[in-house]
Write a structure and sequence with these properties.
single chain; 353 residues; alpha/beta; Rossmann fold; 7-stranded parallel beta sheet; 16 helices; globular; binds uridine-diphosphate-N-acetylglucosamine; binds uridine-5'-diphosphate
Amino acid sequence: MKTIVTVVGARPQFIKASTISRKIRNSYNEYLVHTGQHYDANMSDVFFSELKIPQPDINLGVGSDSHAKQIAQMMIKLEEVLNEIRPSLVLIYGDTNSTMATALTAAKLLIPIAHVESGLRNFDMTIQEEINRVIADRLSTLLFAPTQTAVDNLKAEGFSTNVFLTGDVMYDSLLFGLERAESVSEIVSKLRVIPNDYCLVTIHRAENTDNVQNLANIIKALASFNETVVFPVHPRTRKVIDQAGIIQPDNVKFIQPVGYLDFIMLEAKSRIIVTDSGGVQREAYCLKKPCITIFPTTPWVETVQDGWNKLADASVQSITDAYRTGWSCSDYGNHFGEGNAADIIIEKISRNI
Ligand code: UD1
Ligand code: UDP
């Protein structure tokens, strides 16, 4: 049996990898490596237990630091692991520092790389995730694109072989989780919110948190909403809220980050979603929830083109305008595949390694 090393490190990667890691061990010897980029129990452990993912075989325990130090630590530790295991393929997901550190380390060791969620672009190299994904794509052998737009982006950059349209593993995961969430999640009653009568919010991007004024504006805008707002606060955002002494508005419930099943239940029962998360904006689309994305651009253009997702900047005016003017959610397409992206990816891997 051939060996594959899968590397994950951040919350959305545990969710994405769950879809493939649950199945790939039937045909491959898989080592699951956790870089330790996310480490709080509610940012990491909860996903392994809930999503039935094998526990990581190795945890590099890197933790938080500046980008250069975090990436350097990951590379030093990954080099040792990859040299010891010498896999036939390294599997990476998305666009975090864990993704790029793995791509650089594996490429230097001449180990083939498969990148899941390849080809996404904001067309802005000042965004950390764009740097990570452009480098990861450039160094990868197999490029698994979730959407036709992502395929087109790769073609436009000159990639001509080994680009595969697979659908989105995040959509696979949502389908897997929804039924279980319906039967086990009690979050809606625990929070005493009324289904279809609240707004769900997540904010964590550096652009909206490192600049305290932007975060203060976002929270001020939420305070003007005429409905309850449920806001599971990412640790990065919590740090800024605490340091800046931002007060929780009366209609807003700041809560700890929640597990995946609770979160998708909160999405499914919400009236509207406000976010800057890549994953949450497409989950909103797949669940047919109107969404405001607080970011100047999105690689998930289909959600905007179909009228479900509006982009706003981090000003009170822009967010409240988007909130008040209503949605024209006219179209809905299966842009994210049929819920079998993981099967397609495993099949392509088996033909190419
Ligand atoms: C990272 C990714 C981002 C992704 C997000 C998913 C990069 C550059 N960014 O952003 O693309 O959307 O994960 O959630 O890789 N912290 C904790 N506990 C944790 C994790 C983080 O307290 O378990 C705090 C630390 O103060 C840390 C900060 O959050 O410095 C930021 O964490 P980091 O992993 O560097 O970036 P994210 O904002 O989580
Ligand atoms: N999510 C979660 N609990 C939360 C907030 C989000 O399980 O409290 C899930 C959400 O369903 C989505 C993923 O985390 O699948 C998105 O991750 P995140 O927003 O951290 O990262 P991004 O997608 O922006 O990279």
